[in-house]
Amino acid sequence: MEKAMFGAGCFWGVEHFFREVPGVIDAISGYSGGTVANPTYKQVCSDKTGHAEVVEVTFDPAKVSYARLVDLFFKMHDPTQMNRQGPDVGTQYRSVIFTHSPEQERIAKEELAKAKASGRFKRPIVTSIEPAGPFWRAEEYHQRYFEKNGGSCHVSFAEVANQ
Q1: Contact 83, 93 (CB under 8 A)
Q2: β-strands 95-99, 128-131 pairing
Q3: Which of 1, 6, 60, 91 is least crowded, fewest Cβ atoms below 10 Å from its Cβ?
Q4: What is the C-alpha to C-alpha distance for residues 40 and 112, in angstroms, rounded to an integer?
Q5: Which of 25, 35, 21, 50 has the alpha carbon at shortest distance from 156?
Q6: CA–CA gap between residue 127 and residue 149 (Å, rounded)
Q7: Are residues 55 and 11 in contact, defined by beta-carbon separation less than 8 angstroms?
Q8: Is 10 in the active site?
């Protein structure tokens, strides 16, 4: 199994999206990219810790490639919005790929170049690609939020259905 980490706005929909992808074993909502150890949701929402809301994806590379996950990441949210997705605004909602290896970094950059060249986006893509730091699991009430509570968000689930 391998890990991938993506920030694409509110983690509720991002987690739910990746759980639907064949080959994904688990998806966990959490925080990464900040300066505070084991931050709380309240701290992250203060926009003072530097964390992004992220989803840590555990996947079977024999069933789904990292490149495919990155491709889906670019299709499931709007990577041209700086520090926001839909109605959610703040640096914690930034578009970011945290990579776990030089190979993941290379693939993420290739997929970013493909997304830029695709013509799908009218504005520049602002997604950053950064080395993964510590992942901090979000509070339990954030895990599988849509399964427990229903709801919808900015994430495009049509991309999973069209695999």
Answers
A1: yes
A2: parallel
A3: 1
A4: 31
A5: 21
A6: 29
A7: yes
A8: yes
pLDDT digits (tens, 9 = 90+) for 135-158: 999 999 999 998 898 877 777 666
16-34 tens-digit pLDDT: 999 999 999 999 999 999 9
CA angle 143, 159, 16 (to 5 degrees): 5
Name the 3-class secondary structure at 160: helix
At residue 134, φ and ψ (nearest 5 deg) are: -60, 140
Helix (H, G, I), strand (E, B) or coil at 6: strand
Residue 20 neighbours by CB distance under 10 Å? 14
The C-alpha atoms of residue 84 and residue 123 are separated, in whole angstroms, by 14
Catalytic residue among 8, 10, 132, 155: 10
